[in-house]
């Protein structure tokens, strides 16, 4: 019971911080800050936090070797992440933080749809679980 309460508290905190970031971003953009500069500042701010977490929560076993395939995947992931950040900040510049919050609520729906497309998840609407997932997606996209 207590662990589910902690998880709910963490989830509410993350959503609140995301909405706060959207509001601060909108205010900074409306005062003339360039979105490229904002992406650099936000990534520089995140770097010490990530390094601290790496030292606090390190693995007991040695990490796997870095192969060229893994390095290429890390590069592509970083490129996609930066592109998504830029798109989000440009979108916030032309709209409102409320719309950004509503769009971030669609992330589970897009993840579910991508899992079905890439066959990571098989949707069987004959089963109760599959039908419930389909109804959940329709509800999320409906708004």
Overall description:
This protein has helices at residues 2-30, 35-56, 68-94, 97-104, 107-117, 128-142. The protein is mostly helical and 143 residues long. α1 (2-30) runs antiparallel to α4 and α2 packs across α3 (68-94). The protein is globular and about 50 Å long. It starts with a helix and ends with a helix.
Helix content: over 70%
Looking at the structure, what is the overall shape? globular
The tally of beta strands, per DSSP, is: 0
Structural class given helices, strands, pairing?
Answer: mainly alpha
Order of helices and strands: HHHHHH
How far is the first residue's CA from the last residue's CA?
A: 30 Å
What's the pLDDT, averaged over the residues? 80
Number of helices: 6
- Major pleated sheet: none
Beta-strand content: under 5%
- Stretches where pLDDT falls below 50 for ≥5 residues? none
Based on CA atoms alone, the radius of gyration comes out at 19 Å
């Amino acid at each position: 019971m207590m662990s589910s309460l902690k998880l709910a508290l963490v989830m509410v905190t993350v959503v609140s911080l995301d909405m706060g970031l959207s509001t601060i971003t909108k205010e900074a953009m409306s005062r003339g800050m360039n979105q490229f500069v904002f992406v650099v500042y936000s990534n520089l701010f995140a770097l010490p936090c990530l390094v601290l977490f790496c030292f606090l929560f390190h693995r007991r076993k040695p990490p796997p070797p870095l192969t060229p395939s893994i390095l290429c995947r890390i590069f592509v992931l970083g490129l996609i992440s930066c592109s998504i950040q830029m798109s989000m900040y440009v979108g916030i510049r032309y709209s409102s933080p409320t719309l950004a919050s509503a769009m971030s609520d669609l992330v589970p729906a897009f993840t579910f749809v991508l899992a079905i497309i890439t066959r990571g998840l098989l949707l069987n609407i004959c089963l109760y679980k599959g039908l419930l997932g389909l109804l959940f997606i329709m509800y999320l996209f409906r708004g």
